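Moderator note: this is an archived Q&A kept for reference. The question asked for a predicted structure of one protein chain; the sequence and the answer are reproduced below.
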Amino acid sequence: MRIIHVYDGHERVFPGEGSVPTVVYYIAKYTAKKGYDVTVLERKWVGTDYEEGIDGIKFVRFDLNICSNVSNKEVVYDLVRKPSGVLRFVLDRIVFALKANKYLKQNDFDVVHVHLPFAANVLININKKLRDKVVYTAHIGQEELRIPQVVKVKSAGAPIPFKIYSPDLYLFKRVSKITVMHDNLASKLFEYGFEKSKIHVIPHGIDLTEFDTIDTTKLSEVREKYIDKSKINVLFATTLTPHKGVIPLIKAANILINEYNLDVKFILSGRTDINPKFVEEVKQFIKSNDLDGNVTITGFLSYDELKALYLLSDIFVYPLLGYGGVAMCILEAMAARLPIIATNIGGLSMQVRDGWNGFLVEPRNEKQLADKIKYLVENDEIRKEMGGNSRKIVEKEFSWENIADKYVEVYKEVLSR
């Protein structure tokens, strides 16, 4: 079986370059390990070859020269804020689809696995014969914004264009198979009218070996720079945007430090350039409440630095505010044996078993969040036991070996049509 992954994002398909490209890489890697012929099609990045083999995957890249060819340099959210950026974005995806289509016509693949809806929508319209081969993995975070017609959340505040036309929903209706990250979204799609045979629930996985061997020098560097060995270190590691629950988190920190008088260290790690104005508001809150000595914002870290930070921290928090799937940051924290405190929404309950490997709290409830952090800070044995349970869950349910088997079954269904 020949499988090709088509990825038109602004990040290189490689671990640590972002949640979705990391997932694409590991699906490709572990299906290739099972003996399948796997190719990844992406844009040509500075410092990479047009073709190369990595971990059994064949990478094919082509020049676009419309958006940046430096991985992670250009943020889509910023790009589409201006008419000129929207024009570049649309043109980029059209050209990507045209070049991808040319390659697909020259090379015969059994399965075309797409991970973003934009170039894929162009691709399935300029080459309708592909539709029966296409698998779409919906890496959807804010479901209420991306597919408001399906989720039907009245207060979602979805942009008007998305209420009229959802690129994801358009693609859902025209491909062979859809994979989603959690049962809640699958149920919504069934209610909307999709056949159960078309939808498969496959969560993201985690490469456990990444957290079993790590450079001791890197550990020492990260410990010296970010960790306070005299305190319990609470980690938040994802983009610093409102949707991720940063405000409830820093309000919880304020309760713990200024009301409960607990000397706890909070580390907020992740990109700060997606919404700089919001990050400034966060920094102002930290300053005005005298939290500077207890809250550190690291900005974007390399994957090696981030892995070290997971391994050196004591508690992981992810107070997401809206719909979301299985979170890569939680899987990484679980692989590093951390107890998890997350909001009880989307697919997060697939990862956090309340009372066993952490706690689920209600969105925007900073008091509840603070109380759960306090409980883990004050109970060392329970904190360590829950961290061990986190590792057991990922070993049993979220290893890439097991996840790749699920994708292979989907691919076989495509072939049998």
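Archived answer notes: The chain has two domains: 2-205+399-415, 208-397.
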